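Troubleshooting log. The previous run stalled partway through. Resubmitting the same two chains, unchanged.
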Amino acid sequence: MMTEMRRLLPGVESVFTLPELDDWLALGPTLVPFAPLVEDLCARLSQRLFAHAQARLDPGLAAFAFWLRPARLTGMRRDFFANCPETCLSVPRGVVLHFPPANVDSLFGYGWALALLAGNRSIIRVPERLGAMGRLLLALIGESLADSSPELAASSLFLSHARDDRLTAELSARADVRVLWGGDASAAWLRGIAARPRGRDVIFPDRQSLAALSLPAYAAADEAARAALAGGLFNDALLFDQMACSSPLLLAWVGEGDATAARDDFWGRLQAEAARRGYLPPLAQQMAKRTQAAGWALDGETLDVRQWGPAVTVVSWPDASKPAGAHVGGGIFLETRLAALADLIPACSARTQTLTVFGFADDALRAFAVAAGAQAPDRIVPIGQALAFSSYWDGLDLLREFTRQVHLPRS
Amino acid sequence: MTLADDPLWGPPFALAQEAKTPLLLERLNELTLWHRDRCPAYARYLAAMGMPLKAQSLTELPWLPVGVFKSHDLRSIPESEVFRVLTSSGTTGQQVSRIAIDREAALLQTRALSAVIGALVGPRRLPMLIIDAAATAGRTAAFNARTAGVLGMMTFGRAHAFALTDDMQPDLSAITAFLDKHGHEPFLMFGFTFVVWAQFLQALAGRGLDFGQGLLIHSGGWKKLHDQAVDNGAFKAALRDGLNLRRVHNFYGMVEQIGSIFLEDEDGFLHCPSFAEVIIRDPATWEPAAAGQTGIIQVLSILPRSYPGHAILTEDLGAWFPEQPGSAWQGRRLRVQGRIPRAELRGCGDVGGG
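Second attempt completed without errors. Output:
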């Protein structure tokens, strides 16, 4: 007996079988990339999210609503077609099978929307222990789909089932793209289950992220800029207890100047921002932070540990290239001092996802990425933008991953 | 100074707080320097944390989080002097604490335990019923915390009997034989709190067995009982009603700090012995908490000389209470409320259920 599937959307929740799935697959032609009715659906979902009191107040859902706005989608569309050579035509891949993470409630929305914008149909395996905000998002997507054309309503299938490798194999055999967010162990699990011969896997394994601040720029920053920076780092690091892949662990002060004055000011502001926004890591996590910092001190990895408050533990990290391994999150930062941005390259590896920055010129950042080569992080964005989702993620252009290029050279 | 004329090694609950605090502070400050000079990792820790080498008060003493004993082998003696390695209990796959003690520390630990138990039981060794299986104390048993606890306590009794069979069921014939022989005079009982509750009391309550002369010492944590909404009061009431067992004393301690042996008196509070102390830290500020306020339990003991464990922050919650004037047992009192609840973390590294 295979595990029972339940269809959460479209329609009312009900038991769902593989023959029903095959009927669904036989249903519809796919759309074209950036079909107006899809953009319209996104715009209406954005409005629904903004209009909903709870969704509006949730940072994750509010950010998703913002991301779905027409202005944003227009930019994405222009970018997409501009990147398509004249001799090629982009078509959808077909059916995208999504495995979103259980613990970031709103993430499944992005994958679903991008696959749909690329013109695909989607099967979303909704995590069984979805949080309240995830359930709310699902309900609002359901309302938006119900209001749309039958063609669109049939574009998306939200399923729920307990873990069952045979069922995953059946679903995989019907998908053109599999998308998995979930770390190294989950990545290895899915890779063990065959995809279609032509199937494409878009897998997001465990990653780590860093931040770099220009010391001269910080010294020159005024009160408002410093306050904004603390607010930005709070969002980057602490909105998800520092457990998001793009939340920084190592923070480097780069360039000439009084690092002591800068860091005392900076970390004090971050703790104050955390207090102002009512962020208090659970006591067990505070203990875990102290224990992890103590371990590094006992080992001589750090020469200085400072507790700025319950949300901010700062551990000096003289050798930026030394990997710290897994960290416990909840506001534990490794702090290092570098003469130049290029000195950060040894700290980057295949695990490095996002570099958040403050106070560097664009050409300096480009030069850094060029010099880093294969070690370059996947994203270099301003501090405050670490969690801002983009269709460029983990080094991939997701809209390209979800489309095929039909080559049509002029005769 | 020999132990005989050391006031901290007198009767363990006789020293008033006022006299105890300065003596402890001096001894613990000495220990900080002792360990700094002998344990390089500890010296690095002190330097990195910026903690004072000479504390002005007990609350200023540099402490280690208890979790580091799971990840690090910390000792202030050469490997050749390690007499025994104590390990904490833990389920398979869990990391356990490893505590290196030398011959002297082992002797002091025995002396400390005997002083505390003696204060309750008296100098005479009593017949003893162990609420556990003989296999736990057997020679083939793995030397884990439970075995160590049973073996350690057995030295305080005589004519030992085991109340449970090797598959942890009540051994009715052994129990009735013990009661027939010793039930009319004071006798000692020892067991782990949850074992006493689940394997002993639940099976035997209401069968007319009379443990009226018994004195039960139990330890091992309340987590499983708290999950069943059983607190100390309910535990004691059930033992009284079901087995006529009226003298029941809880015991709080941890393998990571030898000498921290907190024993419950008739008043229902755990008491600090003279060679140990408790501090509670406010979970919001980590500053010392006022009497009666719930916080993180920190323990101090003058015994750990073989490893830097004289000041440890535990992962338990509790509250301290001042000594009661005129009470037979002097020193701070403690109530333990259980482990700090586990944190559920978010992140993007997890696809639920695969």
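Takeaways: The first helix of chain B runs from residue 17 to 38. The longest strand of chain B covers residues 311-321.
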